[in-house]
Amino acid sequence: MGQVSEPRGVRRQLEQGARGARALRRRPTGLRFALVAVLSLAGCKKDEAPPTTPPPATPPAAKAAPRVIELKVTEDGFQPANLTVKKDQPLKLLVTRVTDATCATELLIEGTDIDVKLPLNAPAEIAWTPTTAGKVKFGCAMDKMVGGILLVE
Asked: What's the CA angle centered on 125, arms 134 and 152, to 5 degrees?
């Protein structure tokens, strides 16, 4: 038997098929290249700025400087004996006992735990902030017999 020749159309299809198969093999390479290019460009994207922290809140108002009030304990009692002060305003009482002829060797303030010894001829510093309006008695440890009034407005 002799060789059977292929019909002309079949041969062309086979040739095209071979080229088509090579083209198909190349396409995945092309797709791979395109995919790598896209991913590379995505990787070159500019980094976003790091999140910024919000500015710090405004600091709380600084504490008001205390009002300094100087008092003396004399033979006549506390000088001055009556004072007007503001509610919620810090006070610094500087109390100096200048005589030994008094029972006011300590200072107590009504409605508080303040009970401070008053040394002779040396100032005692008492920090206090009145929180309620009204009259507040202060004075000696003998039921504030020698004392005065703080009028809190």
From this structure: 10
